[in-house]
Write a structure and sequence with these properties.
single chain; mainly alpha; 5 helices; elongated
Length: 132
């Protein structure tokens, strides 16, 4: 006898499981995402602190690769800021399509962390960084 119940797709938790191990998962999102009206000096200090946290994170590569692959527009992910990623994305689009692996891209000595992806700049400041 054939089952009439549709087969559900496999869970995709393996794509986000790395976030469970992120050093930033219980930290304040304000360390990683810019508030509205943030000045240049405050941004530099905030990003330096975030990148220091990321530098010792066990999943910094996965976080960085995710942020580059989805073209994350806000915050420090995997130790790289949105400005850093823009430069990497510009370089990578000349070399390979965005959906390909970002392995081997130079981070120019930058450190690397992780958190769930906000959908907008406003969401970024209130984002929960642990996997659901």
């Amino acid at each position: 006898m054939t089952s009439l119940t549709p087969q559900l797709p496999a869970p995709l938790s393996r794509l986000w499981e790395w976030q469970i191990h992120a050093r930033c998962k219980n930290l304040d999102a304000d360390l990683f995402f810019p508030p509205d009206g943030e000045g240049k000096g405050a941004r530099i200090r905030r990003e330096r602190i975030a990148k220091d946290i990321c530098s010792a994170c066990p999943v910094r590569r996965e976080c960085r690769d995710h942020a580059i692959a989805v073209r994350e527009p806000f915050g420090v992910w995997g130790g790289i800021s949105e400005t850093d990623r823009r430069g990497l994305t510009d370089e990578s689009t000349r070399v390979m399509p965005a959906q390909r692996s970002v392995e081997g891209l130079s981070l120019r000595g930058r450190g690397t962390g992780s958190r769930a992806r906000p959908t907008s700049k406003q969401d970024a400041s209130s984002s929960c960084r642990s996997a659901s």
